[in-house]
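Deliverable D4.2, example record:
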Amino acid sequence: MQNHLHNRSEMSIFIYAIILVQHDQFDSSLLLETTDRISSSGVIYLVEWNSVSAVVSNIKTDSLTPDDSTVMEYANVIEKLAKNYDVIPVRFGTLFKTIGSIKYMLKKNYTTIRQNLHIIKNKCEFGLKVFYDSKKLKDSFMLKPVIGQEEDKANFPNAKKSVYLDYINKKMVIHRCEELCLSFTNSIIFDIKECFARLNPVSRFEKMVTDSNLISAVFLVEKNKENELIYAVKSLKKRHSNLNFVLTGPWPPYNFVKLTNQL
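Output generated by the structure prediction step:
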């Protein structure tokens, strides 16, 4: 069965990814000199079941440390695999004791694995972050009067100010500002979807992630449409010069597989 990082000194099998490739189709030379920190032998090999294979290497369990260099090495293997195969990345630090236990995992999850591989076939992942000057945007919203506020002043010109009324008014302004920010965010997401419509991507959006990160999104796009995606982002930049669009990728489809929790 699967284990995650632990301290016992024993041999384990580190699993990088799952691919729809068998031994006679696998070019292990693509991964030479990429596993010095993970593999105890420097050899990456396949464990097969039916038409799917796990990409693995042997390791002494107590020699695996989750530092930046080791994680980068793992990511490098995944990226090299993704250039040549459809890849389901497996969570870093997933270890198995025996080849038999890996085969059992592949058999148990075979249907799900094939479904995931179908979703990501000939596709790669891109990330898009939209940054903005939160202070300028919120200040512009704060300057807009709250609906009804001006009418109250006109209808009750002699009304005395109070701490309570000031508190209520401030809360109303803040609430309206938040609503306008959310509405603005939704309008940008609509524009992004419109610009990317021809690419027909699978997408996920997070809104107002931080005070300056308006949108964080990931897209699963066909590998041959990278240039179209870049052009679409350039178009967005022209339409929204007050925002900063940062596109990253292509990446292996880390955010579009649903498998690792079942291992």
